[in-house]
From TrEMBL, chain A:
Boundaries of every MD-2-related lipid-recognition domain copy: 42-159
Keyword Signal: yes
Protein name according to UniProt: Lymphocyte antigen 86
Organism: Chinchilla lanigera
SUPFAM superfamilies (alphabetical): E set domains
SMART domains the UniProt entry points to: ML
Keyword Transferase in record: no
Keyword annotations of the record: Signal
Gene: LY86
UniProt record, GO biological process: innate immune response; lipopolysaccharide-mediated signaling pathway; positive regulation of lipopolysaccharide-mediated signaling pathway
From TrEMBL, chain B:
Keyword Nucleus: no
Main location: membrane
Membrane-spanning parts: 632-654
Family under the similarity heading: Belongs to the Toll-like receptor family.
PANTHER family per the UniProt record, alphabetical: TOLL-LIKE RECEPTOR, TOLL-LIKE RECEPTOR 4
Protein name as it appears in the record: CD180 antigen
Role played: May cooperate with MD-1 and TLR4 to mediate the innate immune response to bacterial lipopolysaccharide (LPS) in B-cells. Leads to NF-kappa-B activation. Also involved in the life/death decision of B-cells.
Keyword terms, alphabetized: Cell membrane, Glycoprotein, Immunity, Inflammatory response, Innate immunity, Leucine-rich repeat, Membrane, Receptor, Repeat, Signal, Transmembrane, Transmembrane helix
Length: 162, 661
């Protein structure tokens, strides 16, 4: 009987915690691409929401100007939008980069200037340079934020090249 | 059985109480007492009772309100701003805002609206801004027009609208901003525009609509504040359609992800038949860039050619005499002379930043721009061994010069003699080589703002800042001082007129007591992100009523004799210091409690010591400290005296008692 009571007590104490979003839950890991020895996995690190992302090509010899698809709900205006990339290999940060995507005097992409609450779907070029990916496993942290330094999207990506 | 039932009951009770706890955790944030509240992302399905009825500004986005009716906001009668972005609203019923006479802004972005009742927007006396972005609207008839006569901005982006024709009774007279971004508008007719005739000085946005045709005369004799046709492929359609119109600002840029079509001189012919003050053509390609390309640009005052893949502007462009502002950012010039500046004699503002190639300044490339007031040459990889008199030859009226984010520049004495009227000079993140005892900024009599952050300066040069009699704002962030110490004689002693001084991230560990003695006018000093201890505070005794930033330093204990120096300042930042919360810092801790109103971001002022209080906010610390030596002395004397008095009293009492026996 006591065991039953304890089980019930434990259940009642734990169950509301499971229901609340943002607390301990994390978003599922998605596959952005998997082909020809290259695998790119990502997970949203924004506690508020997940987002969708895929790359049309997946190869060790990364081609310039890849086409990507992104689907996300904007939680802030994106008159200004910046991307921070941190590349981690074997636990050490090897590459840090910040890139403006939308600026007031240069909105590079057609989605610049969209408003908070809009659902954004972008399918188009990324305007990246081409480069070679060496064998290994890399962690990539990506963050999109606006002029108020509010996060629009955050991703923990894993790139496995074999 | 009975115990099991009671257990279940107990469990239910417990789970219910747990839920109450979690929901009280998710409270609206009060941003300004009684008036501004943020309830975003809380998954609320009604307005919380905790919001006071004085609430004026309510951010309620990302909640759950499938139906909005007259009772939904009935307790908040003073609302002026209501953001209901993405609240999954399907229905807005009759008189939903009947009791909100003050409401002026209503945001309904991202709601899957099925129906908005005819009287849904009745009530507000002066509804000025209405956001209906991505609400699935396909016809303008969907918007109840009854109470919109005061509307100043209407945002209809991201819908399925294909015609801008408003219903007959729609009041457009006060509209200033009408935003149709990312809809399906392909054709504009005269009839469409007729419904907008009552509006004056309208800003109309068609960005992201593929406009394929405009009926001739549609925009005839109409005056616009701004027109945006961003991303439109065929510009000749636009120019022909805008025949005979007057437009202050015309935005015709395109994007990296948009279809490319080269701009040919014929496309711009329509520009001769209209009046445009300012035009933007960002991201386009010009085919056969020649003099004929610009023959209809003669009346322009501002031209933005950002990222238009230019290698040069052809020499001899005629008729651009009126051009005041030219933006050539993110192009591919090799030399500044390739812009052939002589074609734009009236230019007052010139922006060439973020050039894709390393930009050579050349000699006197801008010398024909006698009226130039603002010049931006930042982010260009400019490198110069003897800057900047030959490069900036004959710019007598230049007031603002931006050379930040470039490669190393070597500056001699009087390096900016060519532009003596300079008021603002920005050299941030550009390494400056200045020989010892030289004064590169000499004779800049009007210079007020000088940004030298991260310039790798030699701060031991006493003459570095000589000859700046009007300098008010000096930024020396990220420059180093010898041994991390600002000595008694430092370069900024030459600039006694300073009002704002930034010395953050300078790796400072000490400041001489006399270092700032000539800076009597300073009203703002930033010493954050250094390794300063409280011993440097005495150097601040020269300042009174200043904004003082000491955040992110190494201040532990502030002794009593330094507290008056802090007391005489207006605002102090002390966050992120390893402050001591033991009794050895009791004077400061007491002072802190009495001066909380002076301290900014006090929630980030935390204890580092003792370990038990590590990370605790100073405002939460109450210390009861042991007695001091003097206290112990007086206490001993007091106890001794009381004992003596007691003995004497007992003795007196006994004697009195036995005498009466």
């Amino acid at each position: 009987m006591t065991r039953f009571v304890i089980t019930l007590l434990v259940w009642t104490l734990i169950s509301p915690g499971n229901g609340s979003w943002g607390g301990g839950t994390s978003w599922p890991t998605h596959t952005a691409c998997r082909k020809e020895g290259l695998e790119v996995l990502y997970q949203s690190c924004d506690p508020l929401q997940d987002f969708g992302f895929s790359v049309d090509q997946c190869a060790k010899h990364l081609k310039p100007n890849l086409n990507i698809r992104v689907g996300i709900i904007l939680r802030e205006d994106i008159r200004e939008l910046y991307l921070d990339i941190v590349l981690i290999s074997k636990g050490a940060s090897v590459f840090n980069y910040s890139y403006p995507i939308c600026e007031v005097d240069l909105p590079k992409f057609s989605f610049c200037g969209r408003k908070k609450g809009e659902q954004l779907y972008y399918a188009g070029p990324m305007n990246n340079p081409g480069f070679e990916i060496y064998e290994g496993k890399y962690q990539v942290l990506l963050e999109l934020y606006n002029e108020k330094r509010t996060t629009l999207a955050c991703a923990n990506a894993t790139v496995i090249c074999s | 059985m009975a115990p099991a039932v009671s257990c279940c009951f107990l469990a239910l009770l417990l789970s219910a109480s747990c839920e109450v706890v979690t929901s009280t955790e998710q409270m609206c944030i009060e941003k300004e007492a009684k008036t501004i509240y943020n309830c975003e992302n809380l998954g609320l399905s009604e307005i919380p009772d905790t919001l006071p009825n004085t609430t004026e500004f309510l951010e309620f986005s990302f909640n759950f309100l499938p139906t909005v009716q007259d009772t939904t906001f009935s307790q908040l009668l003073n609302l002026t701003f209501l953001d209901l972005t993405r609240c999954q609203i399907n229905w807005i019923h009759e008189n939903a805002f009947q009791s909100h006479p003050q409401l002026s802004t209503l945001v309904l972005t991202g709601n899957p609206l099925i129906f908005v009742a005819e009287t849904a927007l009745n009530g507000p006396r002066s509804l000025k801004h209405l956001f209906l972005i991505q609400t699935g609207i396909s016809s303008l008839e969907f918007i109840p027009a009854h109470n919109l006569k005061n509307l100043e901005s209407l945002h209809l982006g991201g819908n399925y609208i294909s015609s801008i024709k408003f219903p007959k009774d729609f009041p457009t007279g006060n509209l200033k901003v009408l935003d149709f971004q990312n809809n399906a508008i392909h054709y504009l007719s005269r009839e469409d525009m007729d419904s907008l005739r009552p509006a004056t000085n309208l800003s109309l946005n068609f960005n992201g609509n593929d406009i394929r045709g405009i009926e001739p005369g549609t925009f005839k004799s109409t005056v616009f504040q701004s027109l945006n046709f961003g991303g439109t492929v065929n510009l000749s359609v636009i120019f022909r359609g805008l025949h005979n119109s007057t437009i202050q600002s015309l935005w015709l840029g395109t994007y990296q992800d948009a279809e490319d079509q080269e701009l040919s001189p014929i496309m711009f012919e329509g520009l001769c038949e209209m009046s445009v003050e300012s035009m933007n053509l960002q991201n386009h390609y010009f085919s056969n860039l020649s003099l004929t390309t610009f023959q209809c640009f003669t009346h322009l005052q501002e031209l933005d050619l950002t990222a238009t893949h230019l290698h040069e502007l052809p020499p001899g462009i005629k008729g651009m005499n009126l051009l005041k502002k030219l933006v050539l950012n993110v192009n591919s010039f090799d030399q500044l002379c390739q812009i052939n500046a002589a074609s734009f004699p009236s230019l007052t503002h010139l922006y060439i930043k973020g050039n894709r190639h390393k930009l050579q300044l050349g000699v006197g490339c801008l010398e024909k721009l006698e009226n130039l007031q603002t010049l931006d040459l930042s982010h260009n990889n400019i490198e110069a061994s003897d800057c900047c008199n030959l490069q900036l030859k004959n710019l007598p009226h230049l007031k603002s010069l931006n050379l930040s984010y470039n490669e190393p520049l070597s500056l001699q004495n009087e390096a900016f003699k060519a532009c003596p009227q300079l008021e603002l000079l920005d050299l941030a993140r550009t390494s400056l080589a200045v020989k010892a005892t030289q004064s590169p900024f000499q004779n800049l009599h009007f210079l007020q703002v000088l940004n030298l952050s991260y310039c790798s300066l030699d701060t031991s040069n006493q003459h570095l800042l000589a000859g700046l009699p009007n300098l008010r704002h000096l930024n020396l962030q990220g420059n180093r001082f010898k041994d991390g110490n600002i000595p008694k004689t430092s370069p900024f002693q030459m600039v006694s007129t300073l009002e704002i001084l930034v010395l953050s991230s300078c790796d400072l560990s000490s400041i001489d007591q006399e270092a700032f003695h000539s800076l009597g006018n300073v009203s703002h000093i930033d010493l954050s992100h250094n390794s300063l201890t409280s011993s440097s505070i005495s150097a601040l005794s020269w300042f009174k009523g200043t904004y003082l930033n000491l955040a992110t330093n190494s201040i532990r204990i502030i002794p009593a004799h330094l507290l008056p120096i802090l007391s005489q300042q207006k605002i102090i930042r002390l966050s992120h210091n390893p402050l001591d919360c033991t009794c050895s810092n009791i004077h400061f801790l007491t002072w802190y409690k009495e001066n909380v109103q002076k301290l900014k971001d006090f929630e980030e002022i935390r204890c580092a010591n003792p370990p038990s209080l590590q990370g605790v906010q100073l405002s939460d610390v109450t210390l009861s400290c042991g007695m001091t030596a003097a206290g112990i002395f007086f206490l001993t004397v007091f106890l001794f005296l009381s004992a003596a008095l007691l003995i004497y009293t007992v003795k007196f009492f006994l004697r009195w008692k036995y005498q009466h026996l």
